[in-house]
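Re: that chain you flagged

S.,

Sorry for the slow reply, it's been a week of failed gels. I finally had a moment to sit down with the sequence you sent. For the record, here it is as I used it:
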Amino acid sequence: MGKIKIAIIGVGNCASSLIQGIYYYTGKNEEDAIGLMHWDIDGYKPEDIEVVAAFDIDKRKVGKDLSEAIFAPPNCTKIFCENIPWMDVEVAMGPVLDGVASHMKEYDEKYTFSVADEEPVDVVEVLEDSGAEILLNYLPVGSEKATRYYAKCALEAGTAFINNIPVFIASNPKWASRFEKAGLPLIGDDIKAQIGATITHRTLTQLFKNRGVRLDRTYQLNTGGNTDFLNMLNRDRLHSKKKSKTEAVQSILGDERLDPENIHIGPSDYVAWQKDNKVCYLRMEGRIFGDVPMNLEVRLSVEDSPNSAGCVIDAIRCCKLALKRGIAGPLTSISAYTMKHPPIQYPDEKAAKLVDKFISGEIER
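Prediction finished late last night. Pasting the structure tokens below so you have them in one place:
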């Protein structure tokens, strides 16, 4: 059957969790493979994914083998698979562009980026030489120029693109059209977690709606101690992120969308000692039978990066399936299932069924 050859932009916590997961599940069977939404997708299991290229800008990662770079500072995610073999993939220097927020320079190097002095590589050339079929974007939130640059490189190199951050590529009709014309699959935008703030908020919102409860106002407050949360202290980089997370909840409400002043969703603060642990506080205020007020509060604590890898591992295999079938452009089912801001929003239960139908070949995308 062969391997699914992927390239990764940004060797941070999310990339670390994904790569650890590939090796963690190697040799396991379906019965003891805890934490996967799909064990087998068209014959492909997690161990069938192979990373053949990687790009970063940090001097502690650039030039190192990927097996070492995924554990280099400022990465701080949980190590659940220590025995990562030498991968023979040297982390290449990418262009910086807007990938580093200016305020990051104010923090100790162990918490943030330390930009390498090397010249950026020719990204298209690296992708072509590596044989990468799919390019994954794990750039920091707010990397608008850098994301567009790498999306363009994917088009030139003939690789599919999975956009895991809130820069709108798959959900932008112009970009979607470019990938379709190039004959390349596209998945995005902004990765959900398996059980994270967004999926929990959406599920509870759907519950309110199904049970006839009028939602009047809600907030979602998140704190964390990884580089992602440190990067997001710059509010200028959060426009797309807030839009993505807010729309993920508003879309469930349909015609009963909340006024902007009654919904607040977004990162709240950086707490260094939390590291990759994300804590989410949800409050929902509504009215039940007889217009009687009620409210619900939830606290969720979860390791952030493994939580996202649980969705990316499915997105990669569905993307490979599209490549095999010659399907181009946005993959609407897996995007709705795994992304906060997909081209088409579906309720999560429907999105899950559509993904199963896509895998079985009942629907095209």
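What I noticed first: The chain has a mean pLDDT of 96.

Talk soon,
D.
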